[in-house]
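Appendix C reproduces, verbatim, an entry submitted by the partner laboratory led by Prof. M.T., so that reviewers can inspect both the input and the predicted structure.
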Amino acid sequence: MRLYSLSVLYKGDPKVHLLKAAYDVSTFNFFQRSSVQEFMTFTSQLIAERSALGSRASVKEQEYLCHVYVRNDGLAGVVIADNEYPQRVCFTLLDKVLDEFSRQVSKMDWPSGSPATISYSALDGYLSKYQVQTAET
């Protein structure tokens, strides 16, 4: 059971853009890591773009399961995991991350924000914490 990516995006007009993301590509070959990370970023944006406001969904993409939650305010979260990772845990993680993100980052920064301009550093911690918890169970 493994988590590969945790992203926070903003679904505005006309398209979705990435606000912050964390990746764990350590299980991939060194030379594949950057292309795998690009694939995960692209897939996260695409899934958030195709999801309605206020919706949750799980989408299978190649050998991954992508879990998306788009809130009514346009803030979206995407977790990319393997097929064995529990869906319920992914949505709990997304709830927690989006609530915390919306408290720490001003809503005025969402439409124009980017990974370079948004200061929210908790994603890497959540990604490793939720990795470890499932490894123990």
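Residues 16 and 50 are 9 Å apart (CA to CA). Additional entries are available on request from the coordinating office.
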